[in-house]
Amino acid sequence: MAKYYDIDDIITEEEIVSVIFQKEASGVGIDPSSETDYIEAGSKLRQAVSVNVPPCFNQNTRLEIQADSACVDLRSRCPFFYEFGCKVAPLVGDRTIGFLLLSAFKNRYKEVLTKAHTAAFTAASKFWSILTKEEINMYEAAQSSMASFKKWRMGGPRLQKASVLGRKRKSTE
Amino acid sequence: MAGQSDPHLSLFSADELEFIAEDEMVEIVPNLKMDALNLISGDFGPFVPQITTQVPLWLAVALKKRGKCSIRPPEWISVDKLTQVLEAERESQEMSEKLPFHYVEISRLLFDHARDDIPDVYMVRSLIEDIRDVRFHKVETDLEAFNGRTIAVKIKNLSAMEVNIVRPFIRRALQAFCKHDSPELIPDPERVSDRRPQVANNAPRRQLRR
Predict the structure, then answer these.
(1) Cα separation of B83 and B81, whole Å?
(2) Residue B190 falls within a domain, yes or no?
(3) What's B134's domain CATH number?
(4) Where are the alpha helices (DSSP H) in chain B?
(5) How many domains does one find in chain B?
(6) What Pfam family is a match, any one (chain B) (predicted)?
(7) Of chain B's two ends, which shows fewer C-beta atoms within 10 Å, N or C?
(8) Which domain range does residue B136 map to?
(9) Interfacial residues of B (vs A; Cβ cutoff 8 Å)
(10) Residue of chain B whose alpha carbon sits nearest to that of A91
(11) What is the pLDDT of residues A101-154, one digit of tens each?
């Protein structure tokens, strides 16, 4: 309930999953001859449907994440990869999704860590585009704290008047 | 009050840390005669010309701005000491304990307001910059060692400014690690998306399946 008004949480639940109906459902308003329908993740209807594994957790993605998780473009697959995974894992009943999420996050975290505190903003823009929402939050937090520190360090009376200038003025006056 | 600048990002801004660091004591050599100051934080003075006395940094800076004293730079602000510290920092992964908690802030305040009182100020300044870079790099390597079982981070002798810089990032990262590690430990589906860090689970966690 704490996340009821969380816009990210709401958008995450808009993610479409494919399901297979286990029981007959009347009045749902779909073509009765079709077996599949689209419902939102999280609305588990008393075992009335079984949820298929969403495409962003398919075998291809898993292989890519195993190969080099830091370079996988997770944003285009699902901008809320981790949150969506957490929500969908108990519905799908696939225990391996949890491990996939953790190992992916662990490896990508290192990349975010090294780039966030050091790389200049423009240099990192390409790297930026493959991050998921959660990673972007982390990245921005690090960047802004580093930027505010640099601003503080540069501020204040940093410029000194050259001694020559002071002397010149005195002689003319 | 702390954290007014931006409550979402970090608890303190750099300027607030500077304000806190101004309470550190420094030695000054006054060139005016003045009675002791009785302040809430304590009594300072009396001020007699050429007799050194201990005052907080903010008072030292205020007097220095008016040309009423010269600041004795702390013992650690010297080329010799800082060179030793830099070497020690480069040699080991441990953070050196020779620098004060507020070394970044104190050194900047002194560079800004009391340049003429520090011998070899350019050398000292670049040494402190180097030390800061080396230390920050060490913090980063320490943080890289994070994994799912991390519940807290322990880095000794971290200074105020360094910890302030990494705080927002670490907070989010730890939160995320806690969240993603929980389904492995707790198969209960309702608790999978639980955001709160599970502090109670201090027991060493199971090794990951690869």
Answers:
(1) 5
(2) no
(3) 1.20.58.1020
(4) 14-21, 57-65, 79-91, 103-113, 121-144, 160-185
(5) 1
(6) PSF2_N
(7) N
(8) 6-22+73-183
(9) 9-10, 13-15, 18, 108, 112, 136, 140, 143-144, 146-148, 161, 164-169, 171-173, 176-177, 179-181, 183-184, 187, 189-190, 192-193, 195, 208-210
(10) B189
(11) 888 888 888 888 877 777 555 555 667 778 888 888 888 888 888 888 888 887
